[in-house]
Each structure stands twice: as C-alpha cells, then as structure tokens.
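Hey, quick one: can you model this chain's 3D structure?
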Amino acid sequence: MELKNILKNEYLLLFARVALGVVFVIAGMEKISGPNAFAKAIYDYRIFPEVLVNFLAVVIPWIEVVSGLLLVFGILARENAAIISFLLVMFSMLVVISISRGLNIECGCFGTASGSRVGWQKILENSGLLLLGFYTMYSENRSLKLEG
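Sure thing. Here's the predicted structure for all 148 residues.
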C-alpha cells in the first residue's frame, strides 16, 4: 500500500484526531484540578509578567480541554487541531528557551501528575503530537466526524 493511500485512511485520521484530543483533555483537566501548581510552573519559566501568570494558569487549561473535546468528537476538527498545534509550538518554544537559559524546572505539561522536567525529550514528545495535529489539519479525509 502506498504512503499516500495510508495517509488517506479514515481510521488513521480518526486515531490521530482522538489521540491528540484525549492527550489535551487529560493535560487540561490535570491543570484545572491544580491551578496553583500550574501557575507555579508558568512562573518558573521566568518569561511572563507576574500579573499574567494566574490568568494563563486558568485560561490555558480550558482551551486545552475544550479544543481537545471538540477534536475527539470531530467538531471543527481542523480548527481545533490548529489551536492545539499552536499551543504545542508555543510550549516547545518555552522549553527551548528554558533549556538555553539552563533552567531545571518542571514543564507543567500535565499539571503535577507527570512531574517531568523541561528537556529535549519534551521537544521530541511535542513534535510527535504536532505531527498528529498537522495530519489532522491537512488531511483531505473528512469522514468519521460529527461535522458535515
């Protein structure tokens, strides 16, 4: 089977869309359940002004949960994959900046559940998720979703 035909497979797209959505729903819910820990993780990056930290700690998880759920159900799949992909690029930039500054901090990726630290492994993980996002955004196949 040609790669082109594999990439057009509706079940592969369904898997990519649901997997990406579920990851972001879980990540967002973990952050919502521990907003103070997520605010601390944001603060530790030393990039955002203190006045924005709590705002970001509340807003980002809800964007993750809503976009993730809509992606799972295939509602505005391309748009929500684009939102999640944008978040992944921003998160990856934060990790690279932190690595270059020698910060040894928790990434805050899954709230306090993961306890993982910033590092090149996070860039690799985000790159894999970003591939799922781009695949969902640019796939010609629009079947197996709720929108028409």
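One thing worth noting: Residues 10-33 form the longest helix (24 residues).
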